[in-house]
Give the backbone structure.
Amino acid sequence: AAAAATEASPSPPNVRVRLCEILQVIESSPRFEQLSLAAVLGNCVTLALYDPSDPDCNSTRCQQLETCETVVTVFFLIEFAIRISALGPRAYFRVGWNRLDFL
């Protein structure tokens, strides 16, 4: 009877499979794409605001821009991890933009 009860109950979902499913939903979400594009645009703005006459980054403005750049870099790393985990390496690198992002 105990064996029959064990067979009747569904096995717990594989955590790795469930995580991949969640990452695929996130990766295919239009909001995720919009957020990624906003990060790219924000990064372009911060790069345009850098002052080349402050190479040591002594000004408050430069330090704030450095913080923004760090935040955007962390976001891009998370975006990469989500996309490559959701798609798999082969599918990820089939997309030209992803190959460019990887560089």
Notes: Residues 80 and 102 are 8 Å apart (CA to CA). The chain has a mean pLDDT of 86. The chain is about 80% helix and 0% strand. The radius of gyration is 21 Å.
